Structure formats: C-alpha cells, structure tokens
Amino acid sequence: MGAYDRDYWRSDPTSQTRSIGGGMKWTATTWLIVACVAVFVLDGFLPRQWVVTESKWQPGLPDDVQRLILDGKIPTSTDPSEQSAGKFLSVEQPVYAQQPNGQTQLVAVNTLQSMPYIQKWLYFSTSTALYSTIPGVGTSALQLWRFIGFQFCHASLEHLLFNMLGLIFFGPVVERYLGAKRFTAFYLICGIAGALVYLLLNFAGFMVTESTNGRVMIPGLLSNDPDMPLVGASAGVFGIIIAAARLMPDATVLLFFVIPMRLKTLAYGLVLIAAASVLLKWKNAGGEAAHLGGAIAGWYFINRPDRLRSFFDFLGRADPTSTFHSARKVQRAGLVDRRGPSNAEIDRILDKVRSGGLGSLNESERRTLRDATRHRSDS
C-alpha cells in the first residue's frame, strides 16, 4: 500500500486550518515556504553587498601590532581599487596600516564574498554569533537574530528548490501531528539546533587550528574560517524528515522520484551521509553539521512534543496564542478552560503513535488526536 493510500494521508476537512469567514487559510508549512521564496526573490532585485568571509594577517606581523590594529589604535585603510559588488563572486581586499613615518604597510588580506542584501543581514556565522574583529572592517558580536534569520536565506535557486521540496513533501505530515503553532516552533528550533552544532564544531576546530598552527586536525571538527556564512532551511527540513520518519517509518517514498524506499531508510541514510561528511571533512561539511543538529532536535522534540508548547510564551501579552494570554482570558471570564481532550488521554495516544506509528490508532483515537491538534492550532 502506498503512503498516500493510507487513511491518515487523506485530506480531512476537519483537519484543515480555516479563516474566521470559513474560507481556507494557509498552513504553517505554506507560510514557511512563502517566507523563504519571498526572501530569495526580493534579494534578486536588491543590490548585492560585500561580506568578509576570511581574514589573513601578513606573516611575521607581531601579535601586539595586530591587537593595536584591531583596537583601532593604528589607523587602517583598504585598497581603493576594490571592485564593485556583483561583478565578481569574491575578491581579495588588502588592508594597510599607517606607520609612524607616515608610510603604509600591508598588514592583512580580507576575502570578500558578494552576497544578496537581505542575506547579508540574516546569514549565520560563528563570528557574528560570538565575537569578531576584522581588520579594516570593525567588530561584530552576539547577533542572535541570525540563529533564526539564516533559515530563510538560500545560496542558489537549486538550494531553495531542494529545501522547499522537503517542506512540501514532509511538512504537512508533521504539521498535522503537532498543529500549526507547535510545528512552527519545531521547525525554528531544529534550525537553531543546526546553527548551534555548527557553531560548537567550528569554534572548537578553529581553536585547535590556532593553538597548533594547523598541525593538528581532529575528525569531526570544522576548521573553516569563523566568518564563513551559513544559510538555508535544510537544518529545519532535516528535523522535519526525521519527525516524519518517526511518525510513518514504513511509508514508501521515491528517492529522486524513481527509487522506492521506506521513509525510515531515507532518513537514516541522510543522517549517515551527514555524519560521514563531517567526520571525513567532505565538501559542505559545515552544512552537514547543521543538518545533524536539525536531525537531533527533530528526533528529540517529535518524541516530546509537549516541550514545544511554551516556545512562543516568552512573548507573553504580545502573543495572543501564548499560555499566559490564554490563562488571563480564562481568569477574567471566571471559566474553566475546556479546550478538548484531557492531557492524559492525549499523552496515551501519543505514546501509542511513538510505539506503533499513526497506523496503530483506531478511528476514535485519530478523531481525538485531530480534535486536540485543532484546539492547539486555534488556541
């Protein structure tokens, strides 16, 4: 039996998200796809910008001089012949420091990458997340919005298409199970986890490389420059694929639209490829590290969906769907909160799904799960 022949794959009017007027409203999966596509399209019309992706000091430059330059105590200037962004994918930008005698000395060379305008402000890197001082550029630190922003940027049309296909195929399965609000939290948390794994492996790899002058390379650590950008929805998509495989392990999917295999096999295979890429330092090891982070978070939270419930509650009064806001509404009305099936019943059904998949539920349990999902999506 194909995956789409199963009862729980069929479109159910009661499981659809509806607007107040009764018309159909976009799902969370659709909103995520639209956001990613919109950022990509808008960036195609905006002027490209230069972003430093690597910086190298000149050999033999004393450490104390480097520190004075970074602290701004020695004036610097960049090469006036720098090309305009958009003509080249990357250029090298010499950085000069002014000596006491008035002459200039080459002290560093920055590698600049031409980057779309919005992506420049949303991409993730170890240096922007922690702290970085770039000669001739300045200082950046703790730009925490990038943990979410990078998930909506893509390096190319192919990059965007592959990630959006993953959302289209597997997003609805997980969204039906979690509800729109918790699904959105799930996607964002998986992306954040991907950035964190990349950050930890890159920071550790950079420290090992710096302390040993590049003589020691530890498998699994990322030795690329901390300024290297990370973009893409793939960490969140990996988490969604793992979650879908947990919910429907024996569903049949077509790899490359041709090769049939179980969804569980596809998910495990993707994780193994990502792990091998990181350990053996294959091409795009940094991106694969983020995939692993997303997969780990996906496995953890699909088995503990209740822990997603409070993700948006930090917004408090600003979020009308938060627990805080709902509790205040009930308190003011003097009513008991009647929002569907009991937590104990839902937990029992979720445990059954985890052990036997969605196919193990009877019609009554499926109806209860749909009702609970609708209540949580609307609440």
Summarize the structure.
By secondary structure, the protein is of the alpha+beta class.
Question: What would you say this structure looks like, in words?
Answer:
It is a single chain. The chain has 379 residues and is α+β, with helices and mostly antiparallel strands. The protein folds into 3 domains: 3-42 and 150-308, Rhomboid-like fold; 51-115, no CATH class; 320-378, no CATH class. The chain is 49% helix and 13% strand. The chain is built from 13 helices and 8 strands. It has helices at 28-45, 63-70, 117-122, 126-129, 146-149, 157-178, 180-212, 234-247, 263-279, 285-302, 323-333, 343-356, 363-378; strands spanning 49-57, 76-78, 90-98, 104-115, 131-134, 138-141, 252-255, 259-262. The strands form 3 sheets. A 4-stranded antiparallel β-sheet has the order 1-4-3-2. Strands 5-6 form a two-stranded antiparallel sheet. Strand 7 (252-255) and strand 8 form a beta hairpin. Helix 7 packs across helix 8, helix 8 (234-247) runs antiparallel to helix 9 and helix 8 (234-247) runs parallel beside helix 10 (285-302). The longest helix has 33 residues, at 180-212. The radius of gyration is 25 Å and the shape is elongated.
Task: Outline the secondary-structure elements.
Elements: H1 28-45, E1 49-57, H2 63-70, E2 76-78, E3 90-98, E4 104-115, H3 117-122, H4 126-129, E5 131-134, E6 138-141, H5 146-149, H6 157-178, H7 180-212, H8 234-247, E7 252-255, E8 259-262, H9 263-279, H10 285-302, H11 323-333, H12 343-356, H13 363-378
Antiparallel strand pairs: 1-4, 2-3, 3-4, 5-6, 7-8
Helix pairs in contact: 1-6, 6-7, 6-8, 7-8, 7-10, 8-9, 8-10, 9-10
